[in-house]
Specification:
The protein is α+β, with helices and mostly antiparallel strands. It is built from 16 helices and 20 strands. The structure holds adenosine-5'-diphosphate (ADP).
Length: about 600
């Protein structure tokens, strides 16, 4: 296998990989590129994509003024060939996992502010020239749109490159304050360097922004896995340029210092405003506080179940364990098909056909893998001292014992390259890269996530699972469900892997996504997060009382952002200036745009 140029390390770049993972990252990159058949980049077909309603002259003048404000080196036109790169060398110009044409959802330029004051300057500039801006922190929101702005030609405000300081780690309060460019890798390494007995909580991949992931309401896998629920205090630039601190941060500290309880108490006084700055386009978050966890003993384990039909019983068994908090974290329940995928081997290794891999083929291969011929695989972790972990595991085993044929494994029962070892790290707050192996499944692979929420109840889980089984088969995609199961709700996350060099495969993936969203909504289930191209459709499913929630969001949007400059269309929230002018993507408009263009004919 060819060795590619080494990915940047954290010592070289704020978004790089820790030196401890450098060789793993190199192998991941080499493996990924070995499956690529599409060129790294193709010549641009179009010149700079201008913001809507702008002439080139007006745009050039606006860019000249922005360069004056930030310094010429901190405003870069997006006029070079687009390079998708890969996770650790990702673009900030477009969606590396493009669903529509690579050159369609692109920015006109990238601005790199170096301080909150400079973010305010960018916002004031955007209002003056009425140019839409789109903030990103690190821009690794893979599967949800990456760095791409929803309105082509927006100026991407890349906060991470120059605003990447860990502003504080308070060991006594077990909390920290970070800027947008601090990755899970960077925060973890700093805590190790300071030898603090604290854990962070990381998602499956550790390269994302701690702040960006939390405001997009991402999740992780320690007991503090709900990232937004474990934040405490924000500093936000509003779309009119005003600066806001939420929570106790609104009360000035003595002598101009930060408030001493900013990272101690979340809601402070009056309406709890933080929530409206998550999954929205109401402000640019420049600082955010987070709670950290105290390190503890922990034990990861894997349980396999024999039959596909056990699924409802597994869900029913998990619910009381989770509600009583016997389960230590949010466990994952995965279909055995994923055991093939997480080996990092391509689909062609297992199956030579082009159709979804048949169940009997999965069964045949699984029987040769450590999990054996099984149906569902449960990954959990327990926390506490040795004695309490033992009691917890005894309770868990006896709850699952009712399901015939279940098997229990500890990490040392499994080979050293088995996926459980990476889960054990993630579930104890150590950021890793293993989940990238998904992308070896197909050449030029990209993925979309379909992520509905259901109650933790067999009947509901079955409905959503059956919709997924039927529609994945209809559109010809392998079904890879991962269920993150809490006591009252579960995130059912289906990972739709497509070849981004194939327009027809993209069209099928978009069709599958659209129909999944629609069918789930008809049954009463909605998504917790989605790709920017499906945001309008998902937002519309939350339409109770003739769309009261969206009217509320639009009222806030119009009040805070009268010129509609901040991330128009993000999460389906369009400012007045854009509403009803053909920007919303409903029906088959994403499929129709593939190979064409996404912008409306105004
Ligand atoms: P990641 O955290 O994975 O690196 P991003 O930086 O791409 O992800 O952030 C995810 C999404 O959240 C972005 O597409 C953007 O819409 C929004 N976002 C990210 N950072 C900010 C921020 N500091 N202020 C407001 N919105 C942000």
């Amino acid at each position: 296998m060819k060795t590619r140029t080494p990915p940047p390390t954290l010592t070289e770049k704020y978004s790089g990989v820790p030196p401890r993972l450098a060789s793993i990252a190199q192998q991941a990159k080499d493996r990924l590129y070995s499956h690529r058949t599409a060129p790294e980049s193709i010549p641009r077909r179009h010149d700079v994509r201008l913001p809507p309603d702008t002439t080139r002259e007006a745009f050039d003048e606006a860019i000249r003024m922005l360069r004056q404000a930030l310094g010429p080196e901190n405003v870069v036109l997006n006029d070079q060939p687009l390079v998708d790169g890969w996770y650790l060398e990702h673009p900030n110009t477009h969606d590396a996992f493009h669903m529509v044409d690579q050159e369609d959802l692109v920015c006109s330029a990238v601005a790199y502010p170096g301080s909150t004051a400079e973010v305010q300057a960018v916002v004031r500039w955007a209002n003056e020239y009425e140019i839409p801006i789109y903030p990103i922190s690190i821009g690794r929101n893979v599967g949800y749109g990456g760095s791409a702005p929803r309105v082509p030609g927006s100026v991407v405000v890349d906060l991470g490159r120059r605003m990447n300081k860990i502003l504080d780690i308070d060991a006594e309060n077990a909390s920290c304050v970070v800027e947008p460019g601090v990755s899970y890798f960077a925060l973890y390494e700093e805590i190790q360097k300071r030898k603090l007995p604290l854990w962070i909580d990381t998602p499956d991949l550790g390269g994302g922004s701690v702040l960006g992931n939390a405001i997009d309401r991402g999740v992780g896998y320690t007991p503090m896995g709900d990232h937004f629920a474990n934040h405490c205090g924000m500093e936000i630039v509003l779309p009119n340029g005003e600066l806001l601190r939420t929570g106790m941060g609104a009360l000035p500290g003595k002598g101009g210092a930060d408030n001493p309880t900013w990272q101690s108490f979340q809601p402070a006084y009056g309406p709890y405003s933080d929530g409206v700055f998550s999954q929205s386009n109401f402000g640019i978050v420049c600082q955010m506080g987070f709670w950290l966890m105290h390190e503890t003993d922990h034990q990861s384990y894997m349980i396999t179940f024999a039959r596909d039909e056990d699924f409802p019983d597994i869900v029913e068994a998990i619910r009381p364990l989770a509600q009583k908090r016997i389960l230590g974290n949010i466990p994952q329940l995965r279909h055995v098909a994923q055991e093939l995928n997480v080996t990092g081997l391509p689909k062609s290794h297992w199956y030579s056909g082009t159709s979804p891999i048949p169940r009997d083929v999965i069964r045949k291969h699984a029987s040769q893998l450590p999990c054996g011929d099984c149906s569902w695989v449960f990954y959990g972790t327990q926390y506490g001292d040795e004695a309490s972990i033992k009691t917890q595991l005894d309770t868990i085993k006896s709850a699952f014992a009712a399901i015939k044929g279940y098997k229990f494994f500890l990490p040392f029962d499994l080979p050293t390259d088995h996926y459980i070892h990476s889960r054990a790290l993630v579930c104890s707050g150590v950021p890793v890269l293993r989940e990238l192996d998904w992308l070896n499944w197909k050449p030029n692979a990209a993925h979309l996530f379909f992520s509905p929420i259901t109650p933790t109840r067999a009947a509901d889980a079955k409905v959503v699972h059956e919709i997924n089984v039927r529609l994945h088969a209809k559109y010809g995609f392998d079904l890879f469900p991962t269920l993150c199961v809490a006591g009252r709700e579960m995130h059912y996350i289906a990972n739709i892997i497509y070849d981004r060099s194939s327009a027809s495969e993209k069209r099928r993936a978009a069709g599958l996504m659209r129909e999944l969203i629609a069918e789930a909504a008809r049954e009463g289930y909605g998504e917790y997060r989605t790709h920017i191209l499906f945001a309008d459709q998902v937002a519309k499913t939350y339409g109770w009382n003739n769309g009261a929630l969206m009217r509320f969001n639009e009222t806030i949007k119009d009040a805070l952002d009268p010129n509609g400059i901040l991330a128009p269309g993000r999460n389906g929230i369009w400012p007045r200036k854009y509403r009803g002018k053909g920007w919303e993507l409903f029906g088959d408009s994403v499929e129709m745009a593939i190979g064409g263009t996404i912008a409306p004919k105004l």
